[in-house]
Amino acid sequence: MLIDAHCHLDFPDFDADREAMFERARAVGVGHFVVPGTTRKRWPDVLALGEREDVSVCLGLHPYFMAQHRESDLNALEGALAQHPELVAVGECGIDARFPETLETQWRLFDAQLRLAKAYELPVVIHCVRANDQVAKRLRQLALPCGGLIHAFAGSPEQAQRFIDLGFVAGLGGAVTHDRAKRLHRAVAALTDDGYVLETDSPDMPLAGHRGKRNEPARVKEVCRIVAELRGQSVERVADNSTATARRLFRL
Ligand SMILES: [Zn+2]
């Protein structure tokens, strides 16, 4: 069985055909889904999805939606962590350096969420864009007990290894399917067998050949095929390794 370790199935993009989307995924062997929360307003929908057997959920404050976050959301997050033992991680949280005007607040929110992950002994689901070195440095200082996922990893082999040494794994998705991503391809080839999981980030991050279209979890199968090709391993081996790593990380 394949696992989509990161997909936003609560987004309204799926309101019209959510059941059919799950069915298409199941039909190609994608049987479990990890859905992260992005804003406090979206958390109830995420928690509702988490009532499904085949969905695991986590809650966080995503750096892309800074304008929607309020200071009180951090208290609400702590309350939710205390109240919902089914949460498998803290996130999605992180740093997106494409938005320098909010970077200071991004770091404050990210730091607070890392501390919550530490206090509740949960892994962290991290969104990290153009900030791999700074984030790795902060993670080293904090020494989180349960590591986490660097979702949509897009860095060098050295950056990947540094995250793995800190107890994190790389999330591999649409980005690896693009021919021009040569540095990322080298990183994928060099990862240890237990250093990565497969994901789609649906509805975002379209695969090569699907530009402009809504992404969905069934495409994990295609990601698996390409990762296998890049690593010179069988599709079965990549499926087994990535599924085992997702289970270990999120205690599924
Ligand atoms: Zn995401």
What does this molecule look like?
This protein is an alpha/beta fold and 252 residues long. The protein has a single domain, classed as Metal-dependent hydrolases (TIM Barrel, Alpha-Beta Barrel), CATH 3.20.20. Helices cover 41% and strands 15% of the residues. It has nine helices and eight strands. The chain has helices spanning 18-27, 43-49, 72-83, 103-119, 132-142, 157-165, 182-190, 220-231, 235-250; strands spanning 2-4, 30-36, 55-58, 90-96, 124-129, 148-151, 168-172, 196-198. The strands form two sheets. It has a five-stranded parallel beta sheet. It has a three-stranded parallel beta sheet with strand order 1-2-3, with helices on both faces. Strand 1, helix 1 (18-27) and strand 2 form a beta-alpha-beta unit. Helix 6 packs across helix 7 and helix 8 crosses helix 9. The model has no long low-confidence stretch (mean pLDDT 96). Zinc ion (ZN) is lined by residues 6, 8, 36, 92, 127, 151, 201.
Brief sketch in words of this structure:
The protein is of the alpha/beta class and 252 residues long. It is built from 9 helices and 8 strands. Strands 4-5-6-7-8 form a 5-stranded parallel β-sheet.
